[in-house]
Design brief:
Blueprint (H helix, E strand, L loop, with lengths): L1 H9 L5 E5 L4 E4 L16 E3 L6 E4 L3 E7 L9 H17 L6 E3 L2 E7 L13 E12 L2 E9 L19 E2 L11 H16 L7
Parallel strand pairs: 2-3, 8-10
Antiparallel strand pairs: 1-5, 2-4, 5-9, 6-7, 7-8, 8-9
């Protein structure tokens, strides 16, 4: 990814979207707090140098590395993050699932009226997608993770994104028999709608 970003910067490589699955691991963003790594010996921990705090990656989760040239896409970081959020939301909508964003909480959330409210009466919501990016001279990298069918218990070794109280969910956990291939097709279709011309997808 670092090499691809350098290639985009110097004009030898095109923009790219990489769709990956990782073995079980935790990554620490630039705002990660030591106390949020509650089980440090459970899985390998990597310094990701992206924005955000701790997150989990593993089988059954689609990791999307987004390497785009924001220099020619408007040089607007806030708009770019909003585009990433809407890309996820529009993709989930293809499966009749309503994803939402929340002020002060990064990522995409699913309302869970089927679960008890938090002790203070706040309605319960579960996170289905995390977003963490970095820019180098207006080239983006890192990106998004969407939970298709990961082992949700693996999130227990961290405080995901530093947020307590709310939980984590997945498409399959919500009763939707969506495969990784199904998600990838929807992601490709919705990318074109949100961002315009699609980059390479090796």
């Amino acid at each position: 990814m670092e090499a691809r970003v350098e290639g985009i910067l110097n004009g030898t490589e095109r923009e790219a979207i990489w769709l990956l699955e990782h073995p079980p691991l935790y990554t620490a963003g630039t705002s990660a707090r030591v106390e949020d790594l509650t089980d440090p010996d459970r899985f390998p921990v990597y310094e990701a140098r992206r924005g955000g705090q701790y997150t989990y990656h593993g089988p059954g989760q689609r990791v999307i590395y987004v390497m785009l040239d924001l220099g020619r896409r408007g040089r607007d970081v806030r708009r770019f993050v909003e585009q990433l959020e809407h890309w996820v939301i529009d993709t989930l909508d293809e499966f009749n699932l309503r994803g939402e964003i929340r002020e002060g909480r990064v990522g995409v959330w699913i309302a869970r009226p089927d679960k008890p409210a938090l002790p203070d009466g706040t309605p319960r919501e579960d996170k289905i997608a995390a977003i963490g990016i970095r820019l180098r001279k207006w080239i983006s990298f890192h990106g998004i993770s969407i939970n298709v069918e990961p082992e949700l218990g693996h999130f227990d070794g961290i405080v995901p994104c530093g947020i307590t109280g709310h939980g984590v969910t997945s498409l399959v956990d919500l009763g939707l028999p969506v495969t990784m291939d199904d998600l990838d097709v929807a992601l490709r279709r919705q990318f074109d709608a949100v961002f315009g011309d699609a980059p390479d997808q090796p």
